[in-house]
Amino acid sequence: MDATTKFVTAPRRTPPAPARPSEVARRRLTPAQREEEIVREAVGFFAEFGFEGQTRELAKRLNVTQPLLYRYFPTKEALVERVYQEVFLRRWNPFWEETIRDTSRPLRERLTAFYTDYASVILTYEWIRLFMFAGLKGLDFNTRYLDLLKERVFTLIIAQIRDELGRPPIAERPITPLEIEAIWSLHAGIFYLGVRKFVYTMPVDDVSEIVAMKVRLFLDGAGSVIGVEGAAPRAV
Fold first, then answer.
1. Which residues fall under the DNA-binding region feature (predicted)?
2. Domain stop point among 86, 118, 151
3. What's the domain range around 105?
4. What's the pTM?
């Protein structure tokens, strides 16, 4: 090698920046995990902005593209339906009906136990606001859910009160509109606690005590409506 020989240094290659943890996590999500992530975020998104919220904004919150969102839910309606299933149906507890039927316990205790547990499920930011927004938007969430409620809970409560009061069973005398309204008076009063808290942002203290009070007031007056054409009432 003579004095004129020059060394040529190869240009240094800058190593690629490491992927951010969030990007790595997204790449590693299975399709089932990705779908679950979308649904979970959609529940919070629609609860905050209502069902007028745009899927492109939801995609931004998820830090994914809108086409990826539609790969899992082809339409906004399909995503909204999944939100309904997630919030209103998956949280339904079949044990509630067993609680109401359990005649080994006093009726007041059964209804208090049911509505206390029911309140713990529905009195949440997502549940209350989604239910309200669905009604304002004219979706059928409310109709479907309330039909389920009347069929599996309202009818059952009326049957139990009639039995407690010695009134004719439903098989002999069909439920009247006023009986349904009587149950609404109790149920809506508990639901309104959530409206006060998550719509009007007013404090609601000691839900369990409030529920027990509402059940007590309801049962004290139920005998004037439930199966009134039947036998003379006895104490509940």
1. 54-73
2. 86
3. 91-223
4. 0.82
